[in-house]
Amino acid sequence: MSSNFANAQVKLNQFLSSGKGIIIFPSSVTDVTSFNSSLSSIGISSSGNLVKTDIGQSIRFGETDFNHPLFENIFMDEKKKQVESPDIYSYFKINPGGKGKSIIKLEDESSFSSEYSIRDGRVLLFGSSPVFSWSDFPIKGIFAPLITKSVMYLSTNNKSEANYLAGEIINLNVSERTLPQIKVMRPDNSEDFINMNENQVTDFISYSSTSISGSYKFYSGEKLLASAKVNTDPAESVTEYMVESDFDDYLEKINFNGKHIRIDKNENPTQMILQARFGSELWRYFVLIAILLALVEMTIARNAKKEMEGLGG
Fold first, then answer.
1. What are the structural domain ranges in the chain?
2. Average pLDDT rounded to a whole number, residues 13-35
3. 207-228 per-position pLDDT tens digit
4. Contact at 8 Å (CB) between 28 and 53?
């Protein structure tokens, strides 16, 4: 390791420890070993291999976390958030795991853009170099606003509480722990405990029991390590009606294999639910059939009686 690289490593770590943030793009002339070494020097686990698509082929964006602050106020219509994907020809196959979280995923589920909490700072890591030999990302409409918002986002101090939505995983840096057990104070004043493996070398943990909204505090003994606010997903408060096709698309997206029924606002929900569970009640139909058969029998009997009276006369 050269002295220049060692000095750069020290300065980067000092920069992150002061609560600042950095954006990392891989160099267009880098190799896997050099890139992974640079990431490891600031506490980010190694990336995967460098992937180069076949000539004439590319990979595109997959899932995007539009709730991330980077996308706040970027779209003119907040209800129709959509990012035009670039064509990506070369990229590092990055999986943040428990140490970070993906912001933009690629079609192969690897991360194009991800965020990491390193000491008191933040790192935004991109998996592809912003040059045309790697992708056409620099000429897409999202490039300029995304880079601008990234700089603004990282310029804010990272010592305030992190914000999450209910059900999301909280990723924590617990490098300052003094005990092998982390105590979690939940919003309902209940306690939860995370036991750290003695052989565990990572300073990051993931906490997933976030179904209750409110403030979560993480302690090592009496020392407060971190806190996080968990909010209700604002999408749950949207009162606009969905069209039937939107709901069908959602069921298809989550691979719902069951059956569902639609209840009109003029129908009795209890009756429709009971009917869906146990089937339609048939006794009414049997009563109607019985009445019809009785009428038919009475008619036949009356006609037969008239014919017998005619023969007797």
1. 3-157, 163-231, 241-278
2. 86
3. 889 989 889 999 999 988 888 8
4. no
201: Cβ contacts below 8 Å, ≥ 6 apart: none
Model confidence over 55-64: pLDDT tens digits?
889 999 999 9
Query: In 10 A of CB 122, how many CB atoms?
Result: 21
User: CA–CA separation, 181 vs 220, rounded Å?
Assistant: 7
pLDDT digits (tens, 9 = 90+) for 225-259: 888 888 887 766 666 666 777 778 878 877 777 77
Residue 226 phi, psi (nearest 5):
-165, 165
What backbone torsions phi and psi does residue 42 show, to the nearest 5 degrees? Answer: -110, 10
Alpha carbons within 13 angstroms on the beta-carbon side of residue 95 total: 5
Note the pLDDT tens digit of each residue in 128-169: 999 999 999 999 989 999 999 898 888 765 444 567 888 888
Task: Report helix angle 3-17 to 32-41, nearest 10.
Answer: 40
The overall longest dimension of the chain from CA atoms, in Å, is 132
User: In which residue are the tokens 């690289």 written?
Assistant: 5
CB–CB of 159/192 below 8 Å?
Answer: no
**Which residues have a Cβ under 8 Å from the Cβ of 260 and sit 6 or more positions away?**
251
d(CA 79, CA 77) in angstroms, rounded, equals 5
- Its pTM stands at 0.53
* Sign of the alpha-carbon torsion through 21, 25, 29, 32: positive
Q: Judge: domain 3-157, CATH 3.40.50.880.
A: yes
**Cβ distance 73 to 55 under 8 Å?**
no
Tell me the C-alpha distance between 34 and 76, whole Å. 40
